[in-house]
Each structure stands twice: as C-alpha cells, then as structure tokens.
Write a structure and sequence with these properties.
Pfam families: DZR (PF12773), PP2C_2 (PF13672). By secondary structure, the protein is α+β, with helices and mostly antiparallel strands. The protein is built from 16 helices and 24 strands. Strands 13, 15, 16, 17, 18, 19 and 22 form a 7-stranded antiparallel beta sheet that branches. Strands 6-7-5-9-8 form a 5-stranded antiparallel beta sheet. A 5-stranded antiparallel beta sheet has the order 14-24-23-20-21. The longest helix is centred in the middle third of the chain and has 22 residues. The two termini are about 50 Å apart.
Length: about 650
C-alpha cells in the first residue's frame, strides 16, 4: 500500500495519485526550486538539492554487514540506502560513519520507498487490534504490549523508544526496526542537522532563565529515562540538541551500562560542563545548586526541580527590579539597533505597556513528581509572526463574493541579547451572500467598516468585548441600510458572514457571525475549531438533539444569523479571548475551505508542517487551495494564515 503524504490514505501500490485527495503519489515539488521530483530520487534534477526522505540509522552491536556496505542497502528489500560522502548537495555536513564498540554504527540513510508503510508501523497497528480484542484491563496492557513486541519480532533496542513515545518531540520518534542476523537496526527521525546545545550556549549570551528552562526539561526526563534504562542519553554532550526554533531535543537514546547506573550527580557534572562553556554573565546563580547536586545533597528529581524553580523565581524578581519601565518605552536607553516596521493607518498602533510581564501571575516551574513531570511554565513572548491571505473563486462559481483584510504592524527590536517582536494584527474574512451584485458588496462593506472602526478605536491592549460588539453592529447597520434603501426583501437582501481575529502580542480576541470559521493548529493538540457555526443544525445540537438527526433536516445548514439582513438587535456575535502559550498556526476561512470536513482530513499533511519556521506560508496556502479546489471547489474559497512562534520571556 502507498500512504498518501497529504491525507495518509492507504492506496493500492499501482496508484499514481491518491484515491481520496488526488495528490500525486509519483512525484513531489523540490523544496528549493519547485521542480517536480520523483519520491525515489535522491537529488533534484534541476537544482541538485537533496530531496530524498532521510532517517538516522543505529546498527548494533557493530557495523553493517559486508553485503550492506557493498550494496549500500541496509535491508534485503533494498529500501534503506546508506548516504555516503560521495552523495553531494546534502544540506549539512555528513557525520563520520565509524563503528563504536559500545554504541554500534550510526549513519544517515535515504528511504527509497518513502510512501510505503514501515513494517514496524504495520506490526504496531496489528498489535493494537489484538489488544483491543482482548478483555484485559487497561493497566495490564503495558506488560502485554512488551510481551507482544517480543513475539512479533521487534528488536529489544526499539523498546525504549516505544515506551517513551509520549515524550516526543524531545525524544525522537522511531520509524522502523528489524533484526539482521545477530544485529539490530533502528531508524529514527533525522536530527543530525540540529545544533549542539553546547555550541549554542558557547555562541549565544543567554539569559539565566532560558538556561534554567532547558535544565528543567532535562530534569523532567530523568525518571522516565530511568524506567527504560537510558539516563545516559542526558549525559552525552553530542546528544543534546536544539532545533531551528531553539527547542531542546535528544539525537537518540543511549542505553545505561549494566555495571553502573547513572546518577543525578552525573547529571550535575554534565550541567557543570555545559555551564562552563556558556557565555552567561550570571553563572554564579547556579553554582550552589550544582555543588549540592554533585555532592549528593540533592538526590531526588523532585528536590532538583524545586531548586530550579527557586532559582527561576529569584532571577525573575531580579529582572523585574532592574526593568521597571515598559519593555517597549520610547525613551528606552537600550540599543536595539535597526528597527523594521510595517506601518498601519495612523493611531492604529499606540504606545502601551500591555506586553509587559506581570510576574505575580506566573508560575515559573512546577515541582516534578514521579507520576507527572512538569515543564517550565515561563511567560511567553513573540519570537516571530508571519501572516498571509488569499481568495479564490473556486471551480464552479463565476464570481467571488468573499472579501478579506489583513492588517498587521510588526516592530522588531534587535540587540546583542537577541530579537524581540512587538505585534498587533487585525484579520477579517467575510463570505457574502445574495448573489454577485449583493454578496460581494455586503462582504466589502463589512470589511471596510471594521477596518475603519479599529483604526480609531484600538488603544491600549485588546479591545474589550463591548467594543468589538459595537464594531460588528456598525458593520451590520451599514449593510442593513443598503438593503433598506434598495427596498430589497427575502432572498434578495444582501448579507455576509464574518470571522475576525484581533492579535496583540500573545493575546488574541476572536469574533464571528455565521459559518465562517477560525481554527487553531499546534503540535500538541492538532486541529481545534475555535468557533461554532450559527446554523440550524448546530442550534438543534446545542438544544440536545442528536447530531445525526439535527443534520438530517433539509435546512440544517441554513444560517441562523448573518450581517445585513436584519437589525443589530437580532445579531449576537460570539466573542472570546485566548492566551497563546506555544507555537501556533491560526486559520480564518470561509466555508468553501472547511466544508465536507476537508480540514479535519488534511490538516496533518497540509497545515501542521507550516508551523515550522522554515515552511513557506504562501506556498503552503497555495497548495491548500489547490487541494481544496480538487476536493470541494463548489464555493468561493478564502483564508488567512497566521503563524505565531513563541519563546520563553527570559528578560
């Protein structure tokens, strides 16, 4: 079976395109130049970029067999091919492929059949079917799983990865595992291009809070790694990495030696080694903790986390005393260097202190327990924000009745301490109704009215719900007046849906009327719909009717409210506020994109990858629209994507 890279649908091996979504199963675009390249090709024929799917191979106890080295394939089926120095145009230096008597052979491999389901995944799916068919209590399934792993031939060295899957992405996911004679082969996510944590610390002048944040992440892994016998993973400097977004992760897992169990004292020595390379000017803050850790006075993970929490709180208090004035005050003495700005209408962005962090409302690091491991709950700030909007008539419509607006003001402050972002954004999507001559006018009126209102009514912080509601009522009144002046009635009255988002820093306000939607996509929770459609079927569901019954009625998708047809007293916009705490993709869209559960089916392949800083939002949205026109296309399609990258606020 061929697994579709877009919708994950299982297709017959002879398929040239996915039977569900229509995407090509023969070739993909080169990430550098866009040329279509076969999935099996190693390099782009146009620009030479390395395009193959890569995995990080671990082969134990020693090195690949002689036949593997001669043919360069690790497996009899010739799916996984060793990448050698002769393979040019790799996007990173190739590490030495030398065997280690204790660690085995490590190498990069390319996947020559990347759309085929891995044998490991098939075995695990079969195992879950067996477990679900059994009557064993859930608490017994853990031992039963381990027993089944042995029975179905999964290598022993793969077990730690399978048992710690809940700690992904810090611990890499396992793709494949098999026996080859007396050897075991494991394929992991490729992280060899990630930066060494030690190099990052040595090059960057990091705030102490950021250092404490990473130390806490390591401490939180100690007990789960103890349970699988892999604490050594935190004691190998080359194994500690950070990705493009400065998120901590391990290159692989290292098994503990039978004759010596790693201790927290060893972890303290590793931290001392890292801190020695750091450029931080506040190393003394950790000196006593490291002394207590290395001497054995701190001998419990919970105790260590409490000490890290205390250090973080003290550092935060010190930072608050030093920086009483607003982070972005005009009379700041800090040398921020160049400032890049994108202007909005006058008065749209006014000076305020809404980005300042109030320490009394924060918990820096929660205490760690053996049952539940906390992470550093630091105040977050913007690292970057990227937005893009697009509209398309669709395959079946002759005119586009949708309108959207994207207004953002981003100020970047650069200094030798890094980059700080200040941002404010107004995002609007309207789906007009009433025919070309009416729907297009209604959506345009709504967008312009809202833009004009917030250009003069957005002061300090996000507008309150009353102010947002007032803006929506004004938009409704403007369209309603046109309807009254034209003396239109019934289906001839123009109207529009509305979904709107206001963003300031890490805070968001959303409002909507009708069935246009806003979604939140992140790596932890996947796709979340943040709005509830104003339609007959949904109203029935909210009143207790079963969804199947509610949506079987012929008027189920008829709107219960929209802007324009009626006076504002009949409009009840939904308004809510969100605080963002992690990297997030926000999507505003008309129903031309969201119909037929299109996003629920395709978000993991089309939207989740766009969370990465290296992903191009314009290209991603274009591809999303192309696929939407294949699967839906019956209506106009409009969407705005906003990518928000966050980092702990350490200053």
């Amino acid at each position: 079976m061929l697994i579709c890279p877009q919708c994950q649908y299982d297709n017959p091996n002879h398929s040239q395109s996915c039977q569900r979504c229509g995407v090509s199963l023969a070739e993909k675009p080169c990430p550098e130049c866009g040329t279509m390249v076969s999935f099996e090709e190693q390099n782009c024929p146009n620009c030479g970029a390395f395009t193959a799917t890569r995995w990080w191979a671990l082969i134990t106890p020693n090195s690949p067999s002689l036949s593997a080295l001669e043919t360069r394939y690790l497996d009899p089926g010739e799916r996984y091919r060793l990448i050698m120095e002769s393979d040019l145009n790799l996007p990173f230096p190739l590490p030495p492929q030398t065997p280690d008597k204790d660690l085995g052979f490590q190498a990069l491999v390319m996947d020559c059949q990347p759309l085929q389901k891995s044998v490991l995944k098939s075995l695990l799916e079969q195992q879950e079917e067996w477990l679900n068919a059994e009557d064993n209590p859930q608490e017994e399934n853990s031992d039963r799983r381990t027993s089944l792993w042995h029975q179905i031939g999964i290598p022993q060295r793969a077990f730690p990865y399978l048992k710690t899957r809940q700690f992904s992405p810090i611990i890499p996911d396992i793709h494949e595992a098999w026996h080859d004679g007396n050897q075991e082969v494991i394929l992991l996510d490729d992280r060899i291009s990630w930066q060494l944590l030690s190099q990052f610390w040595a090059r960057e002048e990091l705030p102490m809070l950021q250092i404490v944040y990473w130390l806490n992440e390591m401490a939180s892994l100690w007990t789960p790694l103890t349970e699988v016998g892999c604490c050594q993973s935190l004691l190998v400097e080359n194994n500690l990495r950070v990705d493009e977004d400065q998120s901590f992760g391990l290159l692989r897992l290292y098994e503990d030696r039978d004759d010596r169990q790693p201790t927290l004292q060893d972890l303290g020595r590793m931290w001392q080694q890292l801190l020695h390379q750091s450029k931080s000017d506040k190393k003394e803050a950790l000196d006593q903790l490291l002394k207590d850790l290395i001497s054995g006075q701190i001998n419990q993970v919970e105790q260590l986390c409490l000490q890290l929490q205390y250090l973080a709180e003290q550092e935060q208090l010190t930072s608050d005393e030093v920086g009483k004035k607003p982070l972005f005050s005009e009379d700041s003495d800090d040398d921020y260097g160049d400032v890049d700005t994108v202007p909005l209408p006058s008065n749209f962005f006014q000076e305020d202190d809404s980005f300042d962090t109030d320490a009394e409302h924060e918990t820096i690091i929660e205490g760690c327990t053996t049952e539940e491991f906390s992470t550093a709950d630091l105040p977050m700030q913007l690292l970057s924000i990227t937005d893009v909007g697009h509209t398309d008539t669709g395959r079946l419509r002759r005119h586009n009745e949708d309108h959207f607006a994207l207004l953002s003001d981003v100020t970047k402050h650069h200094s030798n301490r890094g980059q700080t972002i200040r941002a404010r954004g107004l995002y609007i999507v309207c789906d007009g109704m009433g025919g070309h001559a009416s729907g297009e006018v209604a959506s345009a009126i709504a967008v312009k009215t809202l833009q004009d209102f917030f250009a003069t009514h957005w002061e300090k912080g996000l507008p309150d719900a009353e102010t947002i509601e007032k803006a929506i009522f004004l938009a409704n009144d403007a369209i309603y007046k046109v309807n009254q002046d034209k003396d239109s009635y019934g289906a001839g009255r123009m109207g529009t849906t509305l979904v709107m988002m206001l963003l300031e820093g890490t805070q968001v306000a959303i409002a909507h009327v009708g069935d246009s939607r806003i979604y939140q996509i992140n790596r932890k929770w996947g796709l979340q719909q943040l709005t509830v459609d104003h339609e007959v079927g949904q109203k029935a569901v909210q009143e207790g009717v079963e969804p199947q019954i509610a949506y079987s009625r012929p008027d189920a998708y008829q709107l219960t409210q929209a802007l324009g047809p009626h006076e504002s007293q009949y409009i009840k916009p939904d308004i809510k506020y969100l605080d963002l705490h992690e990297d997030t993709l926000l999507l505003l869209c008309s129903d031309g994109l969201s119909d037929n559960k299109f996003l629920e089916i395709h978000y993991s392949s089309c939207l989740t990858p766009l969370i990465s800083s290296g992903a191009n939002l314009d290209e991603g949205l274009e591809k999303l629209f192309a696929l939407a026109n294949q699967k839906n296309g019956h209506d106009n399609i409009t969407a705005i994507l906003v990518r928000i990258k966050l980092q702990p606020c350490f200053d």
